[in-house]
Design a protein that fits this description.
By secondary structure, this protein is of the alpha+beta class. It has 3 domains: 11-86, no CATH class; 131-198, OB fold (Dihydrolipoamide Acetyltransferase, E2P) (Beta Barrel); 204-321, no CATH class. The protein contains 11 helices and 7 strands. A 4-stranded antiparallel β-sheet has the order 1-4-5-6, with no helix packed on it. It has a 3-stranded mixed β-sheet with strand order 2-3-7, with no helix packed on it. A hairpin with a 2-residue loop joins strand 2 and strand 3. The chain is extended, with a radius of gyration of 31 Å. The N and C termini lie far apart (93 Å). Residues 201-206 have low confidence and may be disordered.
Length: 321
Amino acid sequence: MTDHSIPTKAAASVERDKGSFKQLVKTFGGLNLREITPSKIAEHKSLRRQHGVKPGTIAKELQLLRNALNIAFREWEWIEATPFSRVKIEMPNNMKERWLTLDEEALLLGECPEWLKALQPLPPEPFPFYHEGRRKVHRDGHVEIDKSYYSVPPEYLGREVWVRWDSRLVRIFNVQFGQIAVHPRVEPGRFDTSRFHLADQKISAVERGAEYMLLKTISIGAEASRWAKAMLDARGIEGIRVLQGFIHLAREYPSHAINMASKTALEAGMFRLRPLRELVRRNADQRELEFAESHPIIRPLSEYQELLTVSFKRSDNEPAT
């Protein structure tokens, strides 16, 4: 902090780094540098999410840790590699669309030429252009729109809803076209979850679904079950769909291949389905050599034993010379 953060950063950034440092010490304090592994970093992210910390704050903490490990690796040569080569820092989406207010519009037109002032004022809202369609609510309590996921109240789990979306908002209606949820658009692969849709007293169905699927992973193997639990701890409600895809791997690949891949992925702190599926495929392609107990063209060991016994008897019966 003294040599690398304070001399190069503004006062506000230094104070932020001090707060991040205090949180990092709670997880990594007392550890050797080589003991800071991808799985330990994933454990820190999961713990901070459970405490309700915002993704941007978690990202700032991990950036501070990454910078410190890079210095230990590149300048001081205390470690052979940095674990962040296998860890992705999830940055929040801070992009916003801003529209002019009526006062700003009037100010802008006041600075325009006379011929432009004669134009009609802009409408208070953009022209309504949207897409709509039916969606079925997944067991994780979300509906899918353009590869993004939006939460609905838990009483609609497994039921169909009507969805209407444009470039800014997603509106969700029941079959009577009563609005039940409104969300801002998010990037593909992201979840937008309302805390009111996941209240503890309302969301028992989602939790039962996760527990049921975790029980199914036990039948695959111990390593698969450990990976599934760690993945859910790290990714939260987003991991429900990953867990479902993970269970489906057992229909295509043998359990020993899935367990080997799960062990490797857990050690690396990898909690995404696509790279795990590739590991499973590689393990399944490596066929294990099995040794046959017998073969028609190979004599059994018992015959060699009999030959040795007869040979020794002949040697005993021959006269000494």
